[in-house]
Request: fold
Amino acid sequence: MSTETHYYIGVDIGTGSARACLVDINGRIVASDTQDTKTWRDENDHRIFEQSTTDIWSKICLAVKSVLSKSGVDKSAVKGLGFDATCSLAVTDFDGNPVIVTKGKDIGNTGGERNIILWADHRAEKEAELINTTGSIVLNYVGGTMSLEMEIPKILWLKKHLNPAQFSRCQFFDLPDYFTYKCTGDNTRSFCSTTCKCSFVPDKGWQEDFFTQIGLAELIDGGEWRQMGAAKGRVKAAGTPIGRGLTKDAAKDLGLLLGTAVGSGLIDGYAGWMGTVGARYTENGTLSEAPTLDDSRHRLAAVAGTSTCHLVQSKGGVFVNGVWGPYRDAAFPGWWMNEGGQSSTGQLIDFVITTHTAYPELQERAKQEQKNIHQVLLDVLGKLRQESHAESFTELTKDIHFYPDFHGNRSPIADPRMRGAIIGLELDASIADLSRKYYLTLEAIALQTRHIIESMNTAGHDITSLYLSGGQARNIVLMQLFADTCGVPVVLPASHSEAVVLGAAMLARIAAEKVTTAEQMWKIMVEMTLPGTLVAPAAPPRAKKLLDAKYKIFQEIIEIQKRLRQQMEEAAK
Reply:
């Protein structure tokens, strides 16, 4: 294959895998490879999720070398490398050696593997509660409440469990920034990671009074902030070239050239935003016009996998209660981002299916009929709908109400204590019952998405469309539910599974071309995003009326749960 064409490699570090894609200048994916990564749990503490930078780096190297081998593209044709990753906390010493974060006798030591506290880890609940009593300006930029999934509560937890000497030798990275550091040896951080997950306040920087108040004054370091980075201008917008590109060691590990450009990274959800919202779309066989930068204000990206992130850009900062942000420069220089989210969506769908007593029967039927389990469930639902003469699946399940916060609420309530609920249970353990609960789960995820969109628009956004990526985009029933429940069109990407890593590849091109303005970045996004498919709202009037009624009940369940919790807390005093 000719080496005259420029290629870019995007690397996506997800919850369970590392993926690399080789992409050309038009966004066409030439080769892709995925390697599974390890996650450690604690059988005695369900809150614990840990990973290893050593393990992930080895899988990144395998994936990058694989795409070069599969494609036949020479490494000299690869002009840039971009990273996205989960918003997990990586801990090393100042030589880059992993520092163990696992509770027990080895915590704080170097030489082990488990040096990442995964985003889903909920060990720092008390630390988050303390932070949320401070009244700091920091809280204004996270919807008024800091999540225990962010990095500062986790760092505070580590301080409580390490001795001072161990703690002082730690460097703390949001995971995307760790991998640009690993590649370049340069400790420059990204605005995305520092502002979104590490309490770096837009336009103001690190807040010394806040860190002093919560007991982390040592991080200030005379204004150097060496353990956190990003002080004194050492923080960059997405895609900005980091250092001098790949170091000799990193280039050797990856099979790329010394000095290959490395762009400042993005959190995975933000890469999903970058890889989707620039898309044109096909509606009734007609391709839409190329979107403008201003159009980005109206396009909410939903990156829907294990969990879901909801991201929208605005020219001015919009403060939304229970929604993270606004974050300046998180993606585009001079623009602001807000981030809503659901902590468990794809994971919740799997949980509801696999824990039901009819799951073995479902598996057997899927095997016999040579269909995936979701299609079998839809077949069962279709038969039930016909037998009951219901117009829609929503009518079929109108007397059952499902609340989805089995893993707490990220947005817009921002309360990790919220829990799931099902109202209308029967003595039924059949596959028909499982199919109903499956649909109710999809419906509840869509209802909560409406709650998030309405909260954003009430605060000042103007969201008129939803751009999906991630594994859930394959579920066309869920996609139609989003459109019908939220009352906005849904645009599906050309490749649901590649949108996030495509966003990372866009960072690689931005770095290689040394792009610096929002207009130039948007132009690259539009050029590299293949057209998507539009799913328009299509609920019949009766089904729409039922969805609206269910949404009202959904909101009532929230208030009832809060009231019941308060009553029990008072009774327990």
